[in-house]
Amino acid sequence: MVAYLRVSSETQLDGFGLDSQEQAVRSWVKVNGHRIVHTCRDEGVSGTFDAADRPGLASALDALAGGTADGLVVARLDRLARSLAVQEAALAAAWRLGAAVFAVDGGEVREDDPDDPMRTAMRQMRGVFAQLDRGQVVKRLRDGRRSKAASGRKAVGAYAYGYKGHGAGRERDAVPDNAEQAGVRRINELRREGASYRAIASTLDAEGHPPRRAKAWSPMAVRNVAIRENVS
């Protein structure tokens, strides 16, 4: 069985980090007589992304396709996805490969049965509420950022790409970094045009928008900026 773990970019407000998920999964696997042969992780990755934009989930599905594992286990179904469409696509992909899917908090996620439409409805209802919860979290974060910006203060944490520190002591706060803001705008433009994170990273390097510390942009670094800018 392959275990899939994911934490989102929303600062893990649910407190269900990778370690907690792994502990829950391993305990469940032991009790239920299964064996984990591979553990795949996506850290700082939104549950609204398709498998193609999630290296960990893609690796998990590859393990199923290659016969390395015959089942997929997650701590909760919302770790697999927090978008109903993505959830259903990921489940369908696993089922097409002949794999069983399990969630620690609910047992086996069984395939659709035309003679039991309630099964599908109940699963999709849980997906709808997971999607709603994510939307509410994102809205709270966005409202908080707007409130801080209106008062001239930064939100929390280190200065993100696109911003720099200004002032001293208690008056020190984040202000836009003009050079990096050009990179942020380019990420926004390219992502809205449908460019992949990898393609955006190559474009930024080619156009002379350097990342803050690395020699070149990585898809993950682009993703982090896109998530913050709500163009993920």
Q: Estimate the global geometry from the Cα principal axes.
A: elongated
Taking all Cα atoms into account, the compactness measure Rg is 20 Å
The low-confidence runs, each spanning 5 or more residues with pLDDT under 50, are: none
Cα end-to-end separation: 30 Å
Query: What's the helical proportion of residues?
Result: 40-55%
Number of strands: 7
CATH class of the largest domain: Alpha Beta
* SS field, number of helical segments: 8
The major pleated sheet works out as: 5 strands, mixed
Strand order of the largest sheet: 2-1-3-4-5
At the third CATH level, what is the topology name of the largest domain? Rossmann fold
By CATH, the superfamily of the largest domain comes out as: Resolvase, N-terminal catalytic domain
Mean pLDDT: 82
Broad structural category: alpha/beta
H-E string: EHEHEHHEEHEEHHH
Query: Which architecture of the largest domain would the CATH scheme give at its second level?
Result: 3-Layer(aba) Sandwich
Counted up, domains total 2
Strand content: 5-15%
Kindly describe this structure.
- The structure is a single chain.
- By secondary structure, the protein is an alpha/beta fold.
- It has two domains: 2-111, 3-Layer(aba) Sandwich (Rossmann fold), CATH 3.40.50; 146-228, no CATH class.
- It is 48% helix and 13% strand.
- It contains eight helices and seven strands, in the order βαβαβααββαββααα.
- Strand 4 and strand 5 form a beta hairpin.
- Helix 7 crosses helix 8.
- It starts with a strand and ends with a helix.
Observed structural traits:
232 residues, alpha/beta, Rossmann fold, 2 domains, two-stranded antiparallel ribbon
